[in-house]
Amino acid sequence: MSSSSSVAMSFALDHLRDLHDLQLFIALMNASDRWWDARAAARELQVPDAVARAALEHLAGRNLLEIRVTGEVRYQFRPGSEELRRLSLAFADAFAADPPAVVRALTGSVSSASR
Q: What are the residue ranges spanned by the domains of the chain?
């Protein structure tokens, strides 16, 4: 594994809890000019609103999203520091290069942590 892949995997393990977080994070990054609410995220992930809301709140809590309160709480990909932005982009590159490896790393760590 290259050092950039290693950094990306470390980012995933530090910031993403599960496949819902992963899928939503990639969707948010791919549409970084879009504001998302829980309903839109739920449609994107094809999960209940509560699952999407939990993923959005988790990512926001990791300082990866900006929050705007209008009629609803909306979220946009906007890391709170340049370092987080750089790591996010490196992670996205690693995911684009080898999605199964990222998924295996993430799900393997979840399985190991739950044992």
A: 3-108
Among 92, 81, 82, 85, which Cα is nearest to 26's? 92
Query: Torsions phi, psi of 77, nearest 5?
Result: -65, 115
Burial label for 89, CB within 10 Å (0-12, 13-18, 19+), is middle
Q: Which residue has the tokens 């690693």?
A: 94
Q: Tell me how many helices (H) and strands (E) the chain has.
A: 6, 2
Which one of 66-70, 92-96, 100-104 scores highest in mean pLDDT?
A: 66-70
47 phi and psi angles, rounded to 5 deg: -135, 165
Q: pLDDT over 90 for what percent of the chain?
A: 64
Integer Cα distance of 56 and 104 in angstroms: 22
Domain 3-108 in CATH 3.20.20.140? The answer is no
